[in-house]
Automatic annotation (TrEMBL):
Domain RNA polymerase sigma-70 region as annotated: residue spans: 23-87
Lineage: Bacteria, Pseudomonadati, Bacteroidota, Flavobacteriia, Flavobacteriales
A Pfam family the protein falls into: Sigma70_r2
Keywords: Sigma factor, Transcription, Transcription regulation
Residue ranges annotated for the RNA polymerase sigma factor 70 region 4 type domain, each copy included: 124-175
The family this protein is said to belong to: Belongs to the sigma-70 factor family. ECF subfamily.
Name recorded for this polypeptide: RNA polymerase sigma-70 factor (ECF subfamily)
Highest taxon listed in the record's lineage: Bacteria
Gene Ontology terms describing biological process: DNA-templated transcription initiation
GO molecular function: DNA binding; sigma factor activity
């Protein structure tokens, strides 16, 4: 079957086609971003975000262009967005008064109130995670709480690496939907 056939199937929502496209183009997009960022974590995050956006917008894909070119264009935009976010967080305008207040802070460790808020937020997040199906709960637990790499998760679950990546993408999207729904 040709790539165009997989793209047509993916447009129709075929999960096998999504997995095939992810497997086929993952290394190309990841390698491209690794050269640009020179950081494995950033390259991996950008690649995941790229496939997430591409699969969300696959209906807009124009078959006159190569699929990998389209993915690389998305990856470049995701990378630019990441750089803008980093840059804007580095340069925050503060007044002299705020600067003076910050200079006079004696202790920057979290207060009891800060710890309580963090604990409540974590507790609420765990409640949201519990609303997901067990296999999505497990993959979020392994990745974000046990901080396992994709490869380690793949080995632990005895699943292909591409399945782990797609399952984590879906789990994050579903979790975001649960959070948005609960916060309405």
């Amino acid at each position: 079957m040709e790539i165009k056939d997989y793209i047509v199937k993916a447009k129709a929502g075929d999960q096998v086609a999504f997995t095939y496209l992810l497997d086929k183009y993952w290394n190309e997009v990841y390698g491209f971003m690794l050269k640009r960022t020179e950081n494995e974590t950033d390259a991996e995050d950008i690649t995941i975000e790229t496939f997430s956006k591409a699969f969300d917008k696959i209906a807009n894909y124009n078959p006159d262009y190569q699929f990998n070119t389209w993915l690389i264009a998305i990856a470049k935009n995701v990378h630019i967005d990441l750089l803008r976010k980093k840059k804007s967080s580095l340069f925050i305008e503060i007044t002299d008064e705020e600067d003076h207040q910050a200079y006079n802070v004696a202790d920057s460790s979290p207060s009891a109130e800060d710890d309580l808020i963090t604990e409540q937020n974590l507790s609420q997040l765990l409640q949201f995670i519990k609303e997901l199906k067990p296999h999505y709960q497990e993959i979020i637990q392994l990745r974000y709480f046990q901080e396992l790499s994709y490869q380690e998760i793949s080995e632990q679950l005895n699943e292909p690496l591409s399945n782990v990546k797609i399952k984590l993408l879906r789990a994050k999207k579903l979790l975001a939907e649960v959070i948005l729904q609960k916060n309405k």
